[in-house]
Design a protein that fits this description.
By secondary structure, this protein is an alpha+beta fold. It contains 6 helices and 18 strands. The strands form 3 sheets. Strands 1, 3, 5, 9, 10, 16 and 18 form a 7-stranded antiparallel sheet that branches. A 6-stranded antiparallel sheet has the order 2-4-17-6-7-8. Strands 11-15-14-13-12 form a 5-stranded antiparallel sheet, with helices on one face. The chain is globular and about 80 Å long.
């Protein structure tokens, strides 16, 4: 073969290699990357577990183990292996794992980085002044639960499912991305300041929900359907703004919950708002709980209202609806002075979060990083479908960066 032809073929081959690697390079080139699993990169020897792309000079590439947390905590069911995660052989970055809709109640497999291998590493994002972004490229078959993050919900809750539990642990939540939770199919960011619960509820309730929702797509759909069904879920926590935001395909959108006091879970945030308000007023107010913990008050900033609408007005009374960035409040005034107020709408996206991310005191009080599921007491099946990539950044990515990452799903 002639030298010039050989050179031309070599150039074509190089371009083809570059094209196949380009999506992964797009992710790894964004500043702040901590770890990126594309389910293509593996250990060269030994178990050949999936490993993460990490920044140059990093010494930990976070190989993923397989486990069945029911066996670990209830001593029931079988061990999980990589064989329990079918591979698609294609996807946004060239491969994807399937989280199967398991029918065996004693089998809830996930992939994970044990706490012993991540504690105090860059993946262990926690404490003062820390922000985080989690991005997951997925096809949602069903469910609304965890996609990826450090979110050990604890197995200490008194529920029917914990009656036979063998290993009881307190919650060890830090940050995680879910497939909706209270708004199924949304991109739901979840964070915790204490690893445990919020507002005297048994669950952690600091969470956001993107405005858009992902569709349900059967995991065994034809190739052309799967290839066109990838969604880019993301969450950002910006500690400078105290904002937790969910993003679906690069779009966050506004989401409000009207009448939060009637919601099964968010009513606890409503009460935390009202208790914080009562505490600022002289004397004991009707409905005030003086034993309510001060660190659980929930009072987003309310300076000059963004808008004021008069709902009712008479000679001696005026009722206004005041909209602020995170709250809408109904205020009753007499003689120009506020006499009562009520929280009538609470913003779910972005969600106001004024705390630091939970900082475990040691490796024993911290949770693992898991993909596909989290450890939790209810043992539900959770999210099912395909996961084609998981990326974690130690800062809040911009709208432009998230749109860029969302375009990789196509």
């Amino acid at each position: 073969m002639k030298p010039l032809l050989l050179l031309a073929l070599s150039v074509v081959s190089l371009h083809a290699a570059d094209d196949s690697a380009e999506p992964a390079v797009t992710v790894t080139s964004i500043p702040g990357l901590v770890a990126f699993w594309d389910f293509v990169k593996r250990e060269p020897d030994g178990q050949k577990r999936f490993t993460a792309h990490v920044p140059a000079g990093a010494t930990n590439d976070y190989p993923l183990d397989a486990a069945n947390y029911i066996k670990d905590y209830w001593r029931a069911g079988r061990e999980a292996t990589y064989a329990d995660f079918p591979l698609l052989g294609r996807g946004p970055f060239g491969n994807a794992i399937r989280i199967v809709k398991e029918t065996d109640e004693n089998f809830r497999p996930f992939l994970f980085v044990p706490r012993s291998r991540l504690h105090d590493t860059p993946l262990d994002i926690k404490g003062a002044g820390k922000s985080v972004t989690v991005v997951v490229w997925a096809i949602r078959e069903s469910g609304n639960h965890a996609l990826a993050g450090i979110w050990h919900e604890g197995t200490d809750l008194k529920e029917k499912s914990t009656a036979t539990i063998a290993k009881v642990e307190r919650g060890q939540r830090q940050y995680a991305l879910f497939a909706g939770l209270n708004k199924q199919g949304s991109a739901c960011g979840h964070v915790s300041e204490n690893g445990a619960s919020s507002f005297l509820n048994k669950y952690a309730l600091h969470k956001c929900n993107s405005a858009d929702l992902s569709p349900e797509v059967p995991a065994d759909s034809p190739a052309e359907v799967l290839d066109s069904s990838w969604q880019c879920f993301a969450m950002t926590f910006d500690h400078e703004k105290d904002e937790l935001t969910g993003w679906l395909n690069g779009v966050s959108g506004d989401r409000w919950l009207d009448q939060p006091k009637k919601d099964k879970l968010i009513s606890f945030a409503y009460n935390a708002y009202m208790q914080g308000h009562y505490a600022k007023l002289p004397g004991k107010q009707d409905g005030e709980d003086e034993a309510f913990p001060k660190d659980q008050y929930y009072n987003p900033p309310e300076g000059e209202p963004l808008s004021v609408n008069v709902l009712r007005e008479s000679a001696d009374e005026r009722v206004e609806l005041r909209e602020h960035r995170f709250t809408k409040i109904e205020v009753t005034l007499r003689g120009g002075e506020e006499v009562t107020r009520d929280l009538v709408s609470l913003r779910l996206n972005p969600w106001w979060y004024p705390h630091d991310l939970y900082k475990p005191k040691d490796a024993q009080s911290g949770g693992p990083f898991t993909i596909g599921r989290v450890i939790h007491s209810s043992r539900s099946v959770g999210f099912t479908g395909w996961i084609g990539g998981v990326a974690v950044f130690d800062r809040a990515l911009s709208t432009e960066e998230l749109k860029k990452l969302s375009e990789l799903r196509r």
